[in-house]
Each structure stands twice: as structure tokens, then as C-alpha cells.
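[Discussion] Sanity-checking designs against the backbone

I'm trying to build intuition for which residues belong where. Below is a C-alpha cell string of 784 positions. I'd appreciate it if someone posts a full sequence so I can compare it with mine line by line.
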């Protein structure tokens, strides 16, 4: 190496001595002498690098043999100069370079290994391409002999991610020590109380935040075999810090850095034994509650009910607008579909697009079509603010009638009842927006789509994949102009992250009749509508998982009006203010109940098909799925009700009750829609704890719920040819559509590769007995 000016810490070898002697005039070298305490580590480090360089230089097919021979020569040299009398043979290695991974106690399951090595340092940075700290800590907990944790505060949203692993460690008798503080009032009392319930846990709290102000965060995992690990960095126990935050945490290996390991452990012991950290026991709850309240200063948080629209699009919206413009200008496509996750501002995007169009055509006639009055009124409000024109637009819905007919916000029902297609010419509107376009395959939209010929048609949807197999992409030459799906939106922090808890349901739905793509509503209602055992399970899990049910703003999706009213009554009888919102509810109730939820006068709204679309309540922090949602479209819409960002929530909490489902129910498609980019199958994702979720998101499945889901996927259509053949045979009766490859893929939310892994589509149809035999050369089939 060339000696440049600067500070060094190199052992002076003969080669380095020669370079020092050859320094140019005006440069001098400052040398020092290693003391006996430093010499061992410094010499070992120098030798490690030298040996590593030599090991890396070996090439050829017998590389590992050469490396093993070289290693064993060094061992023999060390043994010859050793005073211990140990034989060199015990330290020699084999040519295949194998290593010991685990010594298993046959009385217990095999230990789960962390994904990062036990012998090397690793850095966690919180980026989307990195392992999450949460996933690695859980594996460290389960494989440690004892656990020490030091952090400024503990949030319930973070602790509940680690709690199953901590409980398992506690059940195995592993000692756990946790040091935390009341600093800033950030700790959640429920989190500390839950940790206190662990039999082998010791908790210590610092109440003197004026002097202590602990900022250190460390997670120390002791292993009696000498392979301990410690994480030192910036992450407290909170959901963002463990999952999505740009936090840096360095993993230290006891094996690699024994001196640093000893200092970390000694420092923890020093803290734990000072009077600054008081033991926390059964009689400490009141003291901590008062300390937390004092730190918070009693400041209330104001609830912002409405926010005025920005007058400029966000960068991601600008990107979508540019893609749509490119489709028009470069490819001449004047019918374009935008697929954007619920909550990313589809209507805002369409308003900015029309604003750009109106600059070139100031007198353009405009039509906005939707199927609900609430959507139309919100959209009109949005357009007026984006266009800065409070006189823009008129409603054609319910009792509302337009006067000028230049810019209409019309329901599809009113358009059909007023026979607009027969009254207005095909070119009457210059620009048409159709919202929630996944409805457009229905017969009620066909006349509008076929009659009107605008200069530009823009379609909006969060979910172009329809559950019933009806094709909406045919209107756009089978393509989507621009899209931002749910995982991308969460990664870009456009939507709130979610924590999804799959709870084992007490109801078995495997025998409920399946008809026209879903459970028979009557039979389903019998199972759920007045099931008190299940209602008690819902109450239990809400109290167990939520920080404070009385502070939550929860949407509860039910199967029927009867079910919604039953659950509302159960909640109220158990001290949780709730109300049912169904088609029976008056317009006044539909306006008032969301406001009461925002104000926390209600904690739960039990809904039936009311909150699927077009309702914006960013304050919603909890979603309960108390009915199986067969349609992926509806599931994502309902989930999207809680994904809007709001200052008062860290994440959306989702409670889904997972029972033994009908064989036709598709869990695989649901989880695939929630995952980010992954090369794993959904089954592998479930087995591995969903390592590829969007940043900050978490899925936790109870043991039996996990088994139900894995069995459902195993028996699902994509797993076995016999299931595909059965679905092919039943397709036309089940969907009411002709059997084509496109219809089949859309209806079952499959990809072409899923089919072709089992054989050619025409061959599969032939085997299913639904199509006459088609000659295909055998060699063609073998290619698949």
C-alpha cells in the first residue's frame, strides 16, 4: 500500500518498515509500541487478515481441499509452539468444510436460527431491502438462553410484535431482564403490565427523567455456548422503530468481538444495579401511571376533522399523470385505466388530469360517473378545490337535478333512469371519468360505455381484478396505463402500515353452502348473526391486542344487518360504545355516526356494505373482519378504510377471524395482494413469517389459524391439477361466464404460469370434459 498522510494503526512488518524508510522529504512517520494488553488482539487481527488473503487466493475445483490443507498446516504450527500440550489433530478440519449448526435437545423443537450470522457483525438500517429488526429479534429471543433489554420506552404497538416470542422464551424458563424509563411519557402502561405477567421476567424503571434521560437501546442475547449476540442502535420497542423507521442498529458477535461483548454486558449490569432503576412489581402500576402522566404534561391532542386539499399533486401523483399523458401523446390511447390503492387519491389524480385537459379545451363538457351518492359529493368537493372553482359541477343523483349540464357528477342509476344515453349525443361529453371502474363490467354500465364517445375517458379503480371473472381490461386493450398497488403505496408511506392478526375462529365454515362465487348468505348468517361464543372471542381478542379499546376508532365488517345489530348490542353491553350502520340507516345516521366515531363518542361502527367504497375517515385505527370476505376487491376496499394516514395512529390494527373455510375460499390471493416483491410462494411466506411485507407491516397468525390457511393453500386451485380440473368443470355454472383462459384467470386471481405448470389450457379443458379434444403435438406439451 502507498503511505499517504493520515493516522494509522498497522503492525510494522519488514515490508512496511521499508516503505517508511522510503518516505519523501518532508514526511515523517510516528511509531509506537504495543503494550502487553493490546498485543494479543492486534497481532491476531493482523494474522487474520493475512490468512484470509491467502485462503481467498486459492482457485480451482479443489479449492476447499487447498484451503483445508493450508488451515491444517497453520494448526500444526500452532500446536508445535503451544505450551498447553494439546494435540493438533483436535483442531484440524475436513476438506468439505462443514460446520456445526445446532445441538438439539430431543425433548424440545429445534431452535430457530437468526438470519444473520452468529459469528459476524451486521448492520440493520431500516431500508425496504434490509431485514427488519423485528423479524431478527424474534429469532434471537427464541434461540437465546437469557435475554437483557435496555430501551428508553416501550410502546404496545412494538411489544405485541415481540410478545409471542417472549412468552415462548418465558415458558421455557429463560430469564428476561428489561430496563426502561418514563421519559417523555412515551411508554405505554399496558406494555409494561403485560411484561410483568411473564414469570421469569424482571423489570426495572427509571422515573428520574431529569437526570437519567436514557437514550441507549440494546438487545442482548446470552448463549451459554459462547455465541451470544447484542444489538446496539437507535430502536426502542415501537412498531416504526422495529419495522419501517430508518433506524440504525449494529449487531455485535460475542465470538467475533469478545472484548466489546464484555463491555456491553458489564455496562448493562452497572445500569441494572444502580438505584436509578427501580424494580417494577405488582405495586408499581400507580407510580408508573402518575410518572407517565406527569411526563406527558396533560396536553390534549386536537382532532382535525377536515383538511383542505393541496393545490399541487404529490410526486407519485405527478408520475401517474405523466404516464397517462404519455399513453395519449405517444401511443394515441384515449381510454386509460388507473389502478391506485385505496387512499392514494385517485379522484385527486383525475381532477388534476382534467385541469390539464381544460387548459387546452376551456369549454369542455365533463362527466363523472360513480354508483354512490357519497362518492359523487366527495368528488365534486375535490374537483372544485383542485380547479379553484366553487361553481364547477352539478349533481345528478337522488333528488338532485342539474340546470346547465356542462359538468355532471352523476350516479349510474340516475343516468339509466333518466335515459341519458338516448337524450344526449355520443360526442356530447369531451371528458369522462368513471370511478370504481371494477363495477363497469356490470350490465348497468354497458350502455354508457358503448354510447358515449368522449375525447378522453379516464377510469379509476383500486382493484381491476374482479372476483366474478367479468373482464374490465377489454375496454383498454388489456392494459393498465398507470398503477400504484397497496404494497408500493405503503412502502412510499402514502398509506399507513398495518399489523394484521389472524385469530383462530370458533366457527367452522367448511360445510356452509358455496354458490355463485361465495358463501350462501342465509347459511352464513345462521352461523354468525347471533353467535355469543364467537362474540365473546371477539371481545377477548380486542382487549388482548388493542392498547385501549375505549380509545380505538374501529370499523367492524359484518355479514348482515342482523349480525351488525347483534354485534353492536354486544359491544354496548360490554362497555364499548358502538352503533350499527346498514342500508336501514337513515341519511342523517350515515352523516352523524362517522363524526361520533372521530370524536370517540363511539368506538365501533358495525357496518354491512356501507364502508366498502368512497368513505374517508383517516382516524380509523382498527378494522375487524367478522365475516369471511370472498372477494379480493371488497377485502382490499374494506382494509383500505383504515389505511389512510393520520397523526394519531402509528399503524392500522387488523383483526381477522380465521376459521376452517370452504375449500373454494381463496386465502392465497388475499395474502399475495398484501405482500411486496417476493420470489417466494405464499405458502413459503406463511412458513417464514412473511419476511417480504411492505415496510412497517406485520402479519401474525395464531397456530391453528396458520394451519387452516396453509391447508387451504395446499388444497387450493393452484396446488394440484385435480383442483384445476374441478374448477374448469364448474366454471360456467359458478361464474355465469363462458370458459376462456382470460375469464378463468381473472375469476380465480391466477397467473398464466399457474395453469401452464399443470399443462396446456386446452389439454386441461379436455381432461375436465368441458371442451372437445384438440390435437396438440406431444413435443409442444412437453415444453411445459
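Best answer:
Here's mine. Compare freely.
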Amino acid at each position: 500500500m502507498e503511505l499517504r498522510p493520515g493516522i494509522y494503526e498497522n503492525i510494522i512488518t519488514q515490508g512496511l518498515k521499508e516503505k517508511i524508510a522510503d518516505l519523501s522529504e518532508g514526511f515523517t512517520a510516528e511509531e509506537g509500541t504495543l503494550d502487553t494488553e493490546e498485543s494479543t488482539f492486534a497481532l491476531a487481527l493482523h494474522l487474520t487478515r493475512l490468512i484470509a488473503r491467502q485462503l481467498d487466493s486459492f482457485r480451482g475445483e479443489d479449492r476447499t481441499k487447498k484451503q483445508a490443507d493450508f488451515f491444517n498446516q497453520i494448526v500444526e504450527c500452532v500446536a508445535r509452539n503451544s505450551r498447553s500440550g494439546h494435540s493438533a489433530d483436535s483442531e484440524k478440519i475436513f476438506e468439505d468444510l462443514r460446520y456445526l449448526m445446532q445441538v438439539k435437545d430431543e425433548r424440545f423443537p429445534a431452535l430457530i436460527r437468526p438470519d444473520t450470522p452468529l459469528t459476524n457483525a451486521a448492520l440493520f438500517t431500516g431500508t425496504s431491502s434490509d431485514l427488519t429488526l423485528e423479524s431478527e429479534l424474534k429469532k434471537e429471543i427464541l434461540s437465546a438462553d437469557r435475554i437483557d433489554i435496555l430501551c428508553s420506552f416501550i410502546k404496545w404497538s412494538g411489544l405485541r410484535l415481540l410478545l409471542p416470542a417472549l412468552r415462548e422464551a418465558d415458558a421455557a424458563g429463560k430469564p428476561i431482564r428489561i430496563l426502561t424509563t418514563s421519559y417523555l411519557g412515551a411508554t405505554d402502561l399496558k406494555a409494561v403490565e403485560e411484561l410483568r405477567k411473564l414469570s421469569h421476567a424482571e423489570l426495572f424503571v427509571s422515573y428520574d427523567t431529569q437526570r437519567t434521560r436514557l437514550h441507549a437501546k440494546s438487545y442482548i442475547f446470552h448463549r451459554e455456548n459462547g455465541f451470544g449476540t447484542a444489538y446496539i442502535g437507535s430502536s426502542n420497542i415501537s412498531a416504526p422503530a422495529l419495522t419501517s423507521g430508518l433506524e440504525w442498529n449494529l449487531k455485535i458477535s460475542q465470538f467475533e468481538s469478545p472484548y466489546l461483548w464484555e463491555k456491553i454486558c458489564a455496562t448493562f449490569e452497572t445500569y441494572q444495579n444502580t438505584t436509578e432503576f427501580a424494580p417494577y412489581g405488582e405495586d408499581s402500576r400507580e407510580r408508573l401511571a402518575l410518572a407517565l402522566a406527569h411526563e406527558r404534561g396533560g396536553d390534549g391532542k386536537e382532532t382535525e376533522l377536515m383538511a383542505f386539499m393541496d393545490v399541487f399533486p404529490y410526486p407519485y401523483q405527478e408520475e401517474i399523470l405523466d404516464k397517462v399523458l404519455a399513453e395519449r401523446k405517444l401511443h394515441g390511447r384515449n381510454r386509460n385505466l388507473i389502478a391506485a390503492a385505496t387512499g392514494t387519491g385517485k379522484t385527486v389524480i383525475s381532477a388534476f388530469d382534467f385541469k390539464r385537459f381544460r387548459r387546452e379545451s376551456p369549454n369542455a363538457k365533463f362527466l363523472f360517473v360513480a354508483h354512490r351518492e357519497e362518492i359523487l359529493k366527495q368528488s365534486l368537493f375535490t374537483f372544485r378545490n383542485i380547479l379553484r372553482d366553487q361553481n364547477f359541477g352539478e349533481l345528478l343523483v337522488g333528488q338532485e337535478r342539474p340546470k346547465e349540464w356542462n359538468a355532471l357528477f352523476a350516479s349510474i342509476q340516475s343516468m339509466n333512469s333518466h335515459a341519458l344515453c338516448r337524450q344526449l349525443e355520443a360526442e356530447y361529453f369531451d371528458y369522462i371519468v368513471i370511478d370504481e371502474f371494477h363495477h363497469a363490467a356490470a350490465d348497468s354500465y354497458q350502455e354508457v360505455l358503448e354510447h358515449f364517445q368522449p375525447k378522453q375517458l379516464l377510469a379509476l379503480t383500486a382493484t381491476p381484478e374482479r372476483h366474478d371473472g367479468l373482464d374490465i381490461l377489454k375496454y383498454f386493450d388489456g392494459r393498465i396505463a398507470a398503477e400504484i398497488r397497496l404494497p408500493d403505496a405503503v412502502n412510499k408511506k402514502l398509506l399507513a402500515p398495518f399489523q394484521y392478526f389472524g385469530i383462530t375462529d370458533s366457527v367452522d365454515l367448511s360445510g356452509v353452502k358455496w354458490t355463485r362465487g361465495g358463501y350462501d348468505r342465509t347459511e352464513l348468517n345462521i352461523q354468525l348473526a347471533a353467535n355469543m361464543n364467537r362474540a365473546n372471542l371477539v371481545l377477548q381478542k380486542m382487549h388482548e391486542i388493542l392498547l385501549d379499546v375505549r380509545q380505538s376508532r374501529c370499523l367492524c365488517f359484518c355479514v348482515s344487518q342482523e349480525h351488525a345489530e347483534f354485534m353492536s348490542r354486544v359491544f354496548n353491553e360490554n362497555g364499548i360504545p358502538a352503533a350499527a350502520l346498514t342500508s336501514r340507516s337513515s341519511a342523517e345516521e350515515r352523516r352523524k355516526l362517522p363524526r361520533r366515531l372521530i370524536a370517540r363518542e363511539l368506538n365501533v361502527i358495525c357496518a354491512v356494505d356501507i364502508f366498502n367504497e368512497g368513505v374517508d375517515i383517516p382516524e380509523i385505527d382498527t378494522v375487524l373482519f367478522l365475516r369471511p370476505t370472498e372477494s379480493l376487491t371488497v377485502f382490499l376496499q374494506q382494509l383500505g378504510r383504515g389505511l389512510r394516514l393520520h397523526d394519531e395512529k402509528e399503524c392500522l390494527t387488523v383483526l381477522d377471524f380465521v376459521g376452517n373455510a370452504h375449500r373454494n375460499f381463496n386465502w392465497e390471493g388475499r395474502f399475495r395482494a398484501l405482500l411486496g416483491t417476493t420470489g417466494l410462494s405464499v405458502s413459503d411466506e406463511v412458513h417464514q413469517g412473511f419476511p417480504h411485507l411492505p415496510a412497517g407491516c406485520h402479519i401474525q397468525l395464531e397456530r391453528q389459524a396458520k394451519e387452516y390457511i396453509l391447508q387451504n393453500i395446499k388444497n387450493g386451485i393452484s396446488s394440484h391439477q385435480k383442483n384445476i380440473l374441478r374448477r374448469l368443470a364448474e366454471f360456467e355454472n359458478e361464474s355465469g361466464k363462458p370458459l376462456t383462459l382470460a375469464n378463468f384467470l381473472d375469476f380465480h386471481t391466477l397467473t398464466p404460469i399457474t395453469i401452464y405448470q399443470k399443462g396446456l389450457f386446452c389439454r386441461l379443458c379436455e381432461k375436465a370434459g368441458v371442451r372437445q379434444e384438440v390435437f396438440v403435438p406431444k413435443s409442444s406439451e412437453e415444453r411445459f
